[in-house]
Amino acid sequence: MLEQIPTAFLYFLAALALPVLPRGAIRGVVLLAIPAIAALQVWSLPLGNLVQLEFFGFSLDLMRVDKLSRVFALIFCIAAFLGNLYAWHVRDIVQQVAALMYAGAAIGAVFAGDLITLFFYWEGTAISSVFLIWARRTVGSFHTGMRYLIIQVGSGVILLAGVILMYVDTGSIAFERMELGSPATWLIFLSFGIKCAFPLLHNWLQDSYPAATVTGTVILSAFTTKLAVYALARGFAGTEILIYIGAIMTLFPIFFAEIENDLRRVLAYSLNNQLGFMVVGIGIGTEMSLNGTASHAFAHILYKALLFMSVGAVMFRTGTSKASELGGLYRTMPRTAMFCLVGAASISAFPLFSGFVTKSLVMSATAEENYPWIWAIMLFASAGVLSHSGIKIPYFTFFAHDSGKRPKEAPVHMQLAMGITAALCILIGIFPEPLYALLPYEVEYQPYTVGHVVTQLQLLCFALLAFCFLMRTGIHPAEIRAINLDTDWTYRRMLPRLIQWLSGPVGGIFKGIEILKTTWLKGMIITLYHSFGPQGRTSQFWPTGAMVLWIAVLLGITLMVSYAS
Amino acid sequence: MANKKPDNPDRFPPLGRALLWVDGPGNVDKIVYALAGVCVVLFLADFTYKKHPYFTAEEIPGFYGIYGFVMFSALILVAKTLRFFIKRPENYYGDKAIDREEYPVDELDEVDYDA
Question: Is Transmembrane helix among this UniProt entry's keywords (chain A) (predicted)?
Fold first, then answer.
């Protein structure tokens, strides 16, 4: 029976039922049970197009289960479970419903076999997720949420425009691989690119994720961007431009992450950088690189959630996630520190941790297809990941200078969520085969060769040594309370300022015209009134009697002239 | 919630007490020297196995190590320079922006370790 229900509907039904349930443990159990049931369902589903729906003459595919969609749906279910476990203490119904709707919409989008279904779920993720930001209930989060929503919904509208053009061009709404060329495909590409945080379209990510609630950010980090990665892998695999876009994506966030003070924003930049590796994998488009993308997305969701969880736990206990305010927390939050270190090692791709067995697929695929510069950039970006996620996050939170804060260890449910996630990161790192078996294509790759391990360790250990050197010489930039400009400056500062600046002269011109108009009109009316009004000069000399007299005189003259001639 | 009371390490979690070792005098030095030792071993390890390089650069002994050290340092220096240009005060976007506001306390559970 479970086969007939689209996985997304499980989440939606639970989200509808949630408000009627009593607060507390029962809701918590539902929030955990639904992702678990959904994961079992996804696991046991046969491959194929399982559910069709007629919709205004279109046949919609709600459940296209193949190896690519299955691995993404599965990790989304796991992420929803872990996120909800982490949020066990939350009693806010808005966040609970939003988390379920959001996860459901993301899974629905992954299983969408046609572009109309994709559009509905695409917008669904946007609308449901913004409540995780608004749930903070502050002025700042409201405005940030608005910006997030405008951009996310904008991406959906662009997608819709692309789908309509596509339908006009080809008469098909199937969501299959596309070739860039027509306006339709470019629009769809752009829409995916916004959600995937392409360079210059990226800043919604770093703007909004630090504004969400402690638990909301953990949930946000899993879905939207990885849905976009999935959509790109489905629609634009092997599109060469993605290689270059991805390479830039791996590169530029590492500089911003290095000097950012808010650790949750550091993680958002780091997320952006990790997406770059996946996008490069999609652009290369070989079986190996697409396997790399899918597996990296899988591993990434886990370790990124783990890092957001550990920083979130610190925030939960101290009220801040700013590096300048933190430090030395290992004394009283040692377990959170250890979990954070596992996440840091995983994202940095240390051997025996999950990032190593997945990122190396993309790296090797890039090298195999002979893109030396892209490969060199990604190698550089790997050192960059170590710098901000591998070192900065754990070091400045739990070690470094003692902030004097002595918070209690994270609550048990948070430790449990972090513990399970950390265990998964290590398990995937040590035993990659089960994950490899889930991937869209056959994997013939051995991550643990002497060469791979030694070279990777060399890269990381020498970079660590560089960090020690730079810290000791005082060259490493200190953590200071400040923000950094990014592209959000254009719509948070430049445009409002431009409008403000323009409003002066433009308003002045309008005012001038107005004054000119009134004074000129007034003058004209006065002049006319002066001449032609009841007291006017012209009307003064026009009494009727004078008129008659003058006519009589004229007639007399006419008479005399005609008589004389 | 800076702790005004003197620390009582006996009440730290056991793992936290164990980790206090890193604050011991000279212990950070030991970690750095150990790391340097590991780096030397890794560099030498490059000569012990047969490489399957994709690119010629990979044949240079210790290429990955050198690349990691140099690029990491370059990254920090470039980022530091970048900060010079793009750093702004926290209230740059106004006092109501999320970078300025306090996180709502009712969402948190700020407890000290010995509470």
Answer: yes
